[in-house]
Design goal:
The structure is a homodimer. Chain A is mainly α. Chain A is built from six helices and three strands, in the order αααβαββαα. In chain A, a hairpin with a 2-residue loop joins strand 2 and strand 3. The interface of A and B includes residues 27 and 106 of A.
Chain lengths: ~120, ~120
């Protein structure tokens, strides 16, 4: 029963990761999401590594509180720019580059082309 | 003398219109500018008419105070998306479509493709 509870708990954690298709996202939401410089930096850093290799916990160098960082990841997920999944205690990330580009042509390229500040 | 004063006053009014080249604009400023739904609507309405035919005074149907409207026009001018000039008592507008597109490829198209709300 304890084992069952643990599995269920882990499963629930992943299940709370709601993902949104970029096709359902408004331009307003997309602009709000990429309007924040820390979120743009997260996106650029993720673009520099292969999918599913970078965990949320590796972004602690960014100058924001941990709770704020979690919020930023949630915002990016909610506009269809980020996919996440849990592996053990790590939450891994993948940019949804092609899907986001299809919905908002050019927007991601602008973010990726910006210099880090 | 009164005529001279009027002309001079008009001239000074135009001279206070500072314009910015899109090339000098940061992505942050551009995203902030188009992040506002009223500003995006102004841009869409201007895109629907020939350059220099639509005066600021014809935007009174938008649900914002006159002072807020002036602010919106200034923001659009300051990110290089709008050019303005005074003709008599009218302040006429032109979208700087090509210049803005060159600096921020795709961004204006996203704004123009959005449905009015």
């Amino acid at each position: 029963m304890e084992h069952y509870t643990n599995v269920r708990s882990q499963s629930n954690r992943t299940r709370t990761l709601t993902h949104t298709s970029p096709l359902e996202v408004t331009l307003q939401a997309a602009l709000d999401a990429v309007g924040d410089p820390v979120r743009r930096r997260i996106v650029r850093e993720l673009a520099g590594v292969p999918d599913w290799t970078r965990a949320c916990g590796t972004f602690n160098h960014l100058p924001v509180a941990k709770s704020t960082l979690s919020h930023h990841f949630a915002v990016l997920r909610n506009v269809g720019l980020l996919e996440q999944r849990d592996e053990g205690s790590r939450r891994l990330n993948r940019l949804r580059r092609e899907e986001f580009e299809e919905r908002f042509p050019g927007l991601l390229a602008l973010v990726l082309g910006e210099d880090d500040q």
